[in-house]
Write a structure and sequence with these properties.
Helix content is 24%, strand content 27%. With 316 residues, the protein is α/β, with parallel strands linked by helices. The protein has two domains: 111 residues, Alpha-Beta Complex (Nucleoside Triphosphate Pyrophosphohydrolase), CATH 3.90.79.10; 177 residues, Aldolase class I (TIM Barrel, Alpha-Beta Barrel). The strands form three sheets. Strands 10-11-12-13-14-15-16-17 form an eight-stranded parallel β-barrel. Strands 1, 2, 3, 4, 6, 7 and 9 form a seven-stranded mixed beta sheet that branches. A two-stranded antiparallel sheet has the order 5-8. Strand 14, helix 6 and strand 15 form a beta-alpha-beta unit. The chain is globular and about 60 Å long.
Amino acid sequence: MNQRVDIAIGVLRQGNHVLLAQRQAKQSHALKWEFPGGKVESGESVEAALIREFQEEVGVETAHWQPLIQIPWDYESVSVHLHVYESGQFQGEPHGKEGQPVQWTAISELSEYDFPEANKGILTALQLPEAFMISGDFHDELDALNRLEAALEEGIRLVQLRAKKMEEDAFKILAKKAITLTHRYEDAKILINGKPAWLEALPEADGLQLASTMIMELTERPVAEDKILSISTHTKAEVAKALELNADLLLLSPVKDTRSHPDMSGMGWNAFAEMVAEIPIPVYALGGMKLSDVTEARKQGAQGIAAISGLWPEPI
């Protein structure tokens, strides 16, 4: 493997739009769209590289860059480590100083553009929130829907519907109602924790959550490309398999010791960060997480936190 080249990538935001530039015909990945950035020079921080690159490429002064995602990627000719940051603070009007087309594009429309392959994780990260709620215990269907609605009212926008003790038919009935409820809230998405075949009965679901125990016998991505595939992982072998299946995002656990998995010791933030640094798609920290852990999770390279008890509301 080639030594990885450190590249600083900047997602400049203006409301729900981000700044894109189109690569020139003479460049590698010719005519593909990208987020501005470039090679991190020796002794230079990622933030300093972004400030310099945005001055040189699009003529704006930027500040307050914050980490979004790290992406290690191996092309045939070069290996890169993309350090992707985001900011909404800039002065000046962006323009292509090197003759390249530059434009503001809605985040919701990014899938319509042709990006270099390594950018997939960036596009996913931009459309995911910092908190991923997993449904916990409930007394009955009404109780489950009431708790879900309370969470959505509080701002939750990514939900995993999980009810391991329910019969399949009862779960699907609940899921249909939960999907309808979730989609009443702008940008809210709901994933079904279950078997891939269940999505055929629940086509309005946004995607599927697979347990780590279900992935090893799979040989290809089990859901359509327009659905989100999230996979629970605990080990490097499981992470590798999830990436082989072209997962869109991962849950990595347990970060801390939890009552739900007393047989598994928490890996701690250092081990978590080491694993995340080698994963080219968004990762949520799971295991003893609360909203107060979001800042630390982001600092350690995560998209944010996933939780049951830390996010699932108490009975109404």
